[in-house]
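Session log. Operator J.P. requested a structure for one protein chain; no other inputs attached. Running the standard single-chain path with C-alpha cell output.
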Amino acid sequence: MELIDILSPLRVAQNDTVTSKKRALELVSQLLGQDEVLTAQEVFESLVARERLGTTALGHGVALPHGRLKQSNVTLGAFVQLTNGIDFDAADRNPVDLLFAIVVPESCNEEHLKLLAQIAELFSDADMRKKLREARNADELYALLTQWKPQSQ
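Structure written below.
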C-alpha cells in the first residue's frame, strides 16, 4: 500500500493554527471523518486512546497519530502542516508542526505496521521534512507526499 492509496487532497491541510495536542487530534479527526465511512468522533476517540499509551511524536517536529477502528473496513490517512509547532510530548522536546494521521480496520495488523514504518521512513528524511515545511499550499503538500517512494521499492 502506498500513501496515494490512503490520502486524498481533501484530507491534506496547511497552516492550520491549533494550540494544543487535543486540538491537533480533533483537526485530523475531522479530516479523516469527513468521508461517509467514519465519524470524526469515532476517529478522535481512537487516536486519543492510542495517544494515552504513549506519544506518537517521532521527533524532528513530526507526529504520527494512529488508531484502529472496529467499524471500519478502510485505511485512511490525513496530513496537516501547522503554522506553529505544538507540544506533543516528543522525546526530543521539539514542537510538532507536521502530523500524518492514519486509521486502520482493527483486524489490519501487518498492514498497519507496514504503513507506520513507511511514514516513519518518509519523515526520517530531513530534506523531505524541509520540503513539507516550505510547501506553499495543500496541493503541493499532497504532491510531495503521494510522489514519495520508500527506499525498499
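Operator note: Residues 109-124 form the longest helix (16 residues).
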